[in-house]
Amino acid sequence: MPPGNPAVDTADVAALLERGRALSTPVMRAAIDRLAPPMDTVAAYHFGWIDAAGNPTEADSGKAVRPALALISAEAAGAAPEVGVVGAVAVELVHNFSLLHDDLMDGDEQRRHRDTVWKVHGPAQAILVGDAMFALANELLLELGTVEAGRATRRLTIATRKLIDGQAQDISYEHRERVSVEECLEMEGNKTGALIACAVSIGAVLGGADDRTADKLEEYGYHLGLAFQAVDDLLGIWGDPESTGKQTWSDLRQRKKSLPVVAALAAGGPASERLAELLAADAKSSEFDSFSEEEFATRAALIEEAGGREWTSQEARRQHAVAVRALHEVELPEQVRDQLVALADFVVVRKR
């Protein structure tokens, strides 16, 4: 666990997340209303606003870390948090575009304790609504019509391209017996780090910040994203399904070469060698989809015995430290710095 930040406690972090959700949701709903039927309904289901039958619901719509970061980012430039709202919504649209497509490509049937969009509405709608969200993100930013909006759109499109690069790498790694730790970190930096980096700079750009300030905020966000993904990788194997909303051993079921797996394979020793043998056999097995809980538990135990779990936990802390250090290399209001440190702390210790 990272050192506690005395300036911001858990309740304050919850308030920052709730502020991001409260300010961005009305703008998000208005954007989704622009979509042609049935895409508007499918998107509303994905966000948890309605159930599969179209009835209003209060389902979990995500952690809202990215919107919270975008609003704080605006304050980093001395602007009101509301200045970052369109940026927050744009980033969240791109994030959810990636989730819709990822769920389909990975065959995930559950997200946030509900059936995924492709399972309820079909693969075609998952693809179309994801594409529409990507287009909406750029549309909302460019409608602002300012120089700052153009700069923000450029950062978002670069982050989106890197995100797609990361997903392509992730898929390709599933079919390889060995992936290096360096390759895995590069993939996760693209897939997760790039968009979080954009979230924490986009509000500042919209608020008129110079490129140096925005770049330093992106540096913080990139390493925060790596810490975030390292924790996700731990939860993807050992997370409580009641908290994560996913199946037990979720990443092992998908043959993901996540950090704990890659680190365990690179460690050497009997557990590492046995794990490598099992994973190589898994890749050729026609019965993999019918594996028992015990078989996945065996693989998880070998990953832990080889040191993959502990290494990944330490990597999350290391990336957290690098992220926080970047905040001290740029002039920021003290309250903003405290809030960003507190959110970094939250990312490393979260359970879902």
From TrEMBL:
Transmembrane segments: none
InterPro entries, alphabetized: Isoprenoid_synthase_dom_sf, Polyprenyl_synt, Polyprenyl_synt_CS
Biological process, per Gene Ontology: isoprenoid biosynthetic process
Classification via Pfam families: polyprenyl_synt
Keywords of this entry: Magnesium, Metal-binding, Transferase
SUPFAM superfamilies membership: Terpenoid synthases
EC number(s) on file: 2.5.1.-
MF annotations from Gene Ontology: metal ion binding; prenyltransferase activity
Similarity comment text for this entry: Belongs to the FPP/GGPP synthase family.
Descriptive protein name: Octaprenyl-diphosphate synthase
Organism: Streptomyces laurentii
Lineage: Bacteria, Bacillati, Actinomycetota, Actinomycetes, Kitasatosporales
